[in-house]
Amino acid sequence: MALVEPMPSLSAAIRPSIRIRKPPSLAVRMSSTAASATPAKKQAIKESLLTPRFYTTDFEEMERLFSTEINKNLKEEEFDSLLQEFKTDYNQKHFVRNSEFKEAADKLQGPLRQIFVEFLERSCTAEFSGFLLYKELGRRLKKTNPVVAEIFSLMSRDEARHAGFLNKGLSDFNLALDLGFLTKARKYTFFKPKFIFYATYLSEKIGYWRYITIYRHLKANPEYSCYPIFKYFENWCQDENRHGDFFSALMKAQPQFLNDWKAKLWARFFCLSVYVTMYLNDCQRSAFYEGIGLDTKEFDMHVIIEASIVLISSLHCVLLCILMHFIIIPQFHIWTGTNHRDLLIILFN
Ligand SMILES: [Fe+2]
Ligand SMILES: [Fe+2]
């Protein structure tokens, strides 16, 4: 058993443990192979309902929503200070590769090699999807709200960096995603601005918890760290956390998306569907989590609970509270011995 550290502000009472799997059947087989010279270009991953998507929205409605003349809830000081934080660019020098990457990739053989390639492909597509959406929002909002537009552009900078780093990872496996082709050829899913806010806010906050949980687990159990990309997750996830904080501020400036009964239902629906999609995706790929020493279900439960503590306050997810109270927390309690009562006190306060 190894503890995954909670955020410093949370009580030790809710410190959940994530069970470390016994050496997996899909153990990382270490052997060296000759590397081929030129990376093969991959154009797309297999499409399914659970494949990471590219999004587009009603940009004219977005322009109206962010017009400071129309929307008096937009607090300029709050967005100015968020902009300063994005301009600081904490991770400017973080994503620097070294020789460990290629060496580690060459040692990954057998089924786990294929699983790693799929992990890199899907993650790269998801990050690139964020880049495209934020870049377009940065471009379209320039006139109505230059501060918000610049933040979107700086977030697209972060996502491009993340996608590029993952694509470089694919080159360790002699592959590369053709992102230019993907931009043109991939279908874009249309979401109204309200749903873009819910979906992106949720995926940024959940992304933060996924990255930090994997990072902390591998730091405590370095024998499972079979590829160096995970060492970068600690700073990387802070980018996602900042993106989530920005969406939180955006949603506060649009109270109509949170306060009426329809909005509340939609917010809950999105929350549940994002959790279900994550869970189904991860269960299909449990070999990956086992390969890095995690129990897939426990990993997901941990991410859901930690993310929900943040999300409940923003999205007023009463249904989710009920679900957590009657289903998720009791299960979590049975699996890990986490103190149910203490967790509820924190959730409902
Ligand atoms: Fe990202
Ligand atoms: Fe992000």
UniProtKB/TrEMBL annotation:
Rubrerythrin diiron-binding domain: residues covered: 118-251
E.C. number: 1.14.13.81
Domain of life: Eukaryota
Gene Ontology cellular component list: chloroplast thylakoid membrane
Signal peptide interval: none
Pathway: Porphyrin-containing compound metabolism; chlorophyll biosynthesis
UniProt keyword annotations, A-Z: Chlorophyll biosynthesis, Iron, Membrane, Metal-binding, NADP, Oxidoreductase, Photosynthesis, Transmembrane, Transmembrane helix
Gene Ontology MF annotations: magnesium-protoporphyrin IX monomethyl ester (oxidative) cyclase activity; metal ion binding
Transmembrane segments: 303-329
Organism: Cuscuta australis
Membership in a protein family: Belongs to the AcsF family.
Catalytic reaction(s) noted: Mg-protoporphyrin IX 13-monomethyl ester + 3 NADPH + 3 O2 + 2 H(+) = 3,8-divinyl protochlorophyllide a + 3 NADP(+) + 5 H2O
Keyword Transcription included in the entry's annotation: no
InterPro entries xref list: AcsF, Ferritin-like_SF, Rr_diiron-bd_dom
NCBIfam families xref list: AcsF, PRK13654.1
Known cofactor(s): Fe cation
Broadest EC class assigned to this enzyme: oxidoreductase
Record-given protein name: magnesium-protoporphyrin IX monomethyl ester (oxidative) cyclase
